Amino acid sequence: MIGKLRLHRAALAVLAAVMLPTATWAADATVKLRIMETTDIHVHVLNYDYYRDREDDTFGFSRTATLIRQARAEAANSLLIDNGDLIQGNPLGDYVARERGLKRGDVHPVHKAMNLLGYDAGNIGNHEFNYGLEYLEIALSGAKFPYVNANVYHPDGTRNYYTPYVILERKLKDEGGRERPIKIGVIGFVPPQIMQWDKRHLEGKVVAKDIIETARKFVPEMKSKGADLVIAVPHSGLGTGARQDLSENATWRLAQVDGIDAILFGHSHLQFPSEQFKDFPGVNLARGTINGVASVMPGFWGSHLGIVDLTLSVDDAGKWKLADKQGSLRAIFKVEDRKRIPVVQNDPEVVAAVKEEHEGALAFVRKAVGKTSAHIHSYFSLVQDDPSVQIVTDAQKWYVENLLKGTEHGNLAVLSAGAPFKAGGRGGAEYYTDIPAGDIAIKNVADLYLYPNTLQVVKVSGAEVKEWLEMSAGIFNQIDPNKTEPQALINSGFPSFNYDIIDGVTYKIDVSKPRRYDNDGKLVAPDSHRIVDLKFQGKPIDAAQMFAVATNNYRASGGGKFPKIDGKNVIVESPEENRGVIIDYMFDRKSIDPTADGNWSFASVGKPVTLMFESSPAAEKFLSAAPGVKVLGPGEAGFMRYGLTLE
Ligand code: MN
Ligand code: MG
């Protein structure tokens, strides 16, 4: 009996297998497609911070590559697409572009790495234009996958400069294992602001058009050419949704253009889906959709892999329908107890592929690229104008003056704001910038500009410049002119990175007055003014005159809660990092003179007083260049106490 039953079951199984295709003949088949995105890699092929000259677990395509291989192994069908900002953004990129060079036939290290992973398409980001059109063309020719961009045109405005879209012909396995042919359209976009950001490379050679207008033109064309699915790859952030021609961040409106099935976006270096967008209209974080379209933005420098999982159905006539969708991100590290712990290791093939360029870049960041005529240190940066801030403000001013030339803001006087980042405090007695006179290397720039901030410009009046400085001056305690013993000068609750010095104007700070603003930017002493003798070009500043002030994205967007600096008066959001601007400045000048111009100092308080502050014991050897400063004696935690006597 048992034997017979077994035979019977086996026979049924055979019968079922034979019958299966017939049984499902009329029904649509289900097909799952996984679309993976990388974006804003910025030459971070490896998990290596070339400025600090050490490994870092929070970025690196070598890590993302491991995520890609894992995510691909889980899926029956997958595509892999990069959104751009690939060939510029760290010293490895500068090394290839400025020193090693890229000849026709060479493969850029980013493509050596990516070619190992089997990319299906790439989009051109705004930073791709930083080294000019010819360099970009040579770089792109090393990719074993097609590149798209739809909104950059020849100057005639009618012919696309790049291939606007591709229609990938693929065979996807349905859930029954049968191959189903599909045509997948991939279209790319870049912010039209490239015309401003890279004017010197692009003017007269190309024009850039509006992203939405371009999508409305090409998506129907892709459909008419048989695209069953359309994937949009905007190098563009989510944006506000307000209708605005030539908007930089157009993804929110792109999600309303008919015919787009998935959006792989980027540019703003944020994560979607994530809590960062929980209050955004039309966003479903659980589904990873924007206006119902599956969308992802996977961070930056390879921090995340973006995944759009589509469930499709197809009938035997080859008609495709989108049944379900899910956007999600996978990170290369997790955070536990504020520690960042890697969740994947390097892909050894990627590491091996760029070994030679990596070693070249290490030598590049360690060797001299210019000279400084003065010792750059920050030991006295809170009591006198300082070379470690001056070099930053000088570089920013140089960059912004060039950037604004010939624009609607070209007639504004350019001022430049910078703050001492490494000025002891909670960082400890060693936490100072200290670069000897002589050779200066790219890795020294990390010491000058600690954060990967980007440069921004705000437009403010003379009166607002004064309030900006009043807020900065809140770092100082109020000094009693009648006290003869040394008085502690620095309010330790006020971070030094909020002590903005503004170059381009001259001023004095009267620390005998109460501070006008507290640490949170609240006006606490409306009748008090610490900033005196504020002058522009040697004359009292005109409260109504408008200025362009170079600063960073942190300050410009309201960081530190400075009065009236709330993101509303930003006139330039440069994609350039401030430290990148310093490197450009060094390359341009070769030899730099960072000697502080002494544009600010403390005002006399009427009687001699001694302002006490802490600095490193190493500061002692620079006393000759710090008039009025003397050693008072050892402080706590390795600090030395110094006194600045005001006559
Ligand atoms: Mn970017
Ligand atoms: Mg100065």
What do you see in this structure?
This protein is an alpha/beta fold and 647 residues long. The chain has 2 domains: 29-357, Purple Acid Phosphatase, chain A, domain 2 (4-Layer Sandwich); 367-646, Alpha-Beta Complex (5'-nucleotidase,  domain 2), CATH 3.90.780. Helix content is 23%, strand content 28%. The chain has 16 helices and 38 strands. The strands form 10 sheets. Strands 8, 9, 11, 12, 13, 14, 15 and 16 form an 8-stranded mixed β-sheet that branches. Strands 6-5-4-1-17-18 form a 6-stranded mixed β-sheet. A 5-stranded mixed β-sheet has the order 28-23-32-26-33. Helix 12 (387-404) packs across helix 16. The N and C termini lie far apart (113 Å). Residues 1-24 have low confidence and may be disordered. Magnesium ion binds next to loops. The site of manganese (II) ion has 6 residues, from loops.
Query: What count of structural domains?
Result: 2
Structural class: alpha/beta
Give the number of DSSP strands: 38
Distance N to C terminus: 113 Å
Count, helices: 16
Classified in CATH, the superfamily of the largest domain is Metallo-dependent phosphatases
Low-confidence stretches: 1-24
